[in-house]
Design brief:
This protein has about 230 residues and is mainly α. It has one domain: MetI-like fold, CATH 1.10.3720.10. About 80% of the residues lie in helices and about 0% in strands. It contains 8 helices and no strands. The protein is flat.
């Protein structure tokens, strides 16, 4: 058993560094961009001067449908549609790119609701005060609302990222050699599924524990200027 652990752990860690962690980081990065865009579009009370009112409503409906679709269907099914289904429509993506697209879209749908709720939690009087100073809506969002909203959103977004790290194991279903796939390959050679799957579970647990520690650290850093009642000093 010790020999199996010693020989398999380096292979699993290599797969984690090469595929699992990059896949989670890249997907979360693009998913977060998509989430912010989706939240802002859904929250805008009226269109800008460059977009007709009907066009704005259609855009909001498209983003609302996107969120509904990816929150209402299983992630594994989404992976299969994008990797195995799209080639029938003439769109063929490499496995890693298909996984990034799927995880990004899925993360964006869930995270957009987190960001939307965080922005909505900021008191309206801050908007009104900024408007009286002559600030435009984009300026208010970037300079006043977003910094406060992101502090509120850090805990749930961190949880989403930790969940995404675990969800990358589903990429094994589309031939990506991440940690779970490698554990399956090693199991096929040594016929020790209980040991191998326990090892890979332990590695995932270590990764997520480190991320949880970083989450708590980030929460403390972003809250150090707040008093106990949550108000700014």
């Amino acid at each position: 058993m010790l020999h199996t652990i010693v020989t398999s752990v380096p292979e699993l860690l290599k797969a984690g560094i090469q595929y699992t962690i990059p896949l989670a980081l890249i997907s979360f990065f693009f998913g977060l961009i998509l989430a912010v865009l989706t939240a802002v579009v859904k929250l805008m009370p009226k269109p800008g001067h460059k977009l007709p009112k009907l066009g704005w409503r259609i855009l909001q409906a498209i983003f609302a449908f996107y969120v509904w679709l990816f929150r209402s269907t299983p992630l594994l099914v989404q992976l299969f549609i994008i990797f195995f289904g799209l080639p029938n429509a003439g769109i063929e993506l490499p496995a890693f790119l298909a996984a990034v697209v799927t995880f990004s879209l899925n993360t964006g749908a869930y995270a957009s609701e987190t960001i939307r709720a965080s922005i909505s939690s900021i008191p309206n009087d801050q908007w009104e005060a900024a408007y009286t100073l002559g600030m435009k809506r984009p300026q208010i969002l970037m300079r006043i609302i977003f910094p406060q909203a992101m502090r509120i959103a850090i805990p749930p977004l961190s949880n989403s990222f930790i969940g995404l790290v675990k969800d990358t194991s589903l990429a094994s279903s589309i031939t990506i050699l991440e940690m779970f796939t490698v554990s399956q390959q090693i199991t096929a050679k040594n016929y020790e599924p209980l040991l191998m799957y326990t090892i890979v579970a332990a590695i995932y647990a270590i990764f997520c524990s480190v991320l949880t520690y970083l989450q708590h650290y980030l929460e403390k850093r972003t809250s150090k200027y707040l008093s106990k009642d949550g108000a700014h000093h």
